[in-house]
Amino acid sequence: MSQVESVEREAAPGTGRFLQWMAVIALIYVLICAVSLIGSGFKSATGGQAQELFSFASNPFVALVIGIVATALIQSSSTVSSLIVGMVAGGLPVAIAVPMIMGSNIGTTVTNTLVSLGHVRDKSEFRRAFSAATVHDFFNLIAVAIFLPLEILFHPLERAGEATAGLFLGDADMSMSGMNFMKTLTQPLVETLEGVAGVLPGIFAGLAMVLIGLALIFLAISYIGKLLKVLMIGKAKAVLHAAIGRGPITGIGSGALVTILVQSSSTTTSLMVPLVGAGTFTTKQVYPFMLGANIGTCVTALLAATAVSGAVAIHALEIAFVHLIFNIAAVVLIFGLPFLRNLPLIGADWLAGLAAENKIYAAAWVLGMFIILPLLLVGITSLF
User: Fold this and answer.
1) Do residues 298 and 320 make contact, with C-beta atoms less than 8 angstroms apart?
2) What is the CA radius of gyration of the chain?
3) What sections of the protein cross the membrane (predicted)?
């Protein structure tokens, strides 16, 4: 609690807060420019042949693994989803991007597990904290286990995303004229960065644009999160404490709201782990709040999609809506059905009991979830 209070005290009054909000706006501008730059760079690097370049990922399980590993390494699903939006704008097929988006949900949960290790010295605390951390893991695994086969067979998410994007943009050939002001705003910085990368020959110019864009996205999201924690952590804490224990709908909605406020689902869910470890709340009480974080984190990808113009704009917006629809549908289905709702809680309590008795189980879970499972999926699917 003292750390939170010290963060709150750092928020400068008056002019200081105004400058911090201006910095947030500037970083959002950089984020949008970076996504546009990635789209241009990816298109340039692949020569418009993104389908052929990513033919190895046409297997949805391989695409899922890419999403898991990339997010686990970067520890930011917002960064990965924004990168995927940019790649779709550059020609990555939406059918390949959908499993990547699903994988990013699994990969982001590693942060919770690492936070729970801070309680490892106290057996009871660690059991509670590890349970709170892994309930999110189990939920996301169940969501992917249900929706990925459905997506492979019937493409409901892709179709729903396309239909929703169509409501905003109309025909797929439309040039997103309603958002041309965004292109006008971002064009100076994007063209400057394209010019810098353009000094490199051929494909290397496109790769440089992608790498510069990725670095800018990572920095922008990282610093937006830090600034918003200073500016909004007090409000986020108030929402958190007011919501928990007041029913699942309130918990889910508040989890989404807090994540939008601090622009980081990892921050939202990681706030829960120490509170459960300390015995302030139970895993069952914070469970809906964590599910809301899945929904709130989709705002970043939707924001990133506004960077894209031209005929590919509808595809960029489509994959951003796929992310939102997937997370909402998972919450409605899994949390809405009693026999599914309790599975993540049962799994988390069981695993936490094992980990509390022998820490090797905690290490095995992290290695298994984020290294061994992805390798097995790639290995098994390559045989068929």
Assistant:
1) yes
2) 21
3) 18-41, 53-74, 80-102, 129-150, 203-224, 244-266, 286-308, 320-340, 360-383
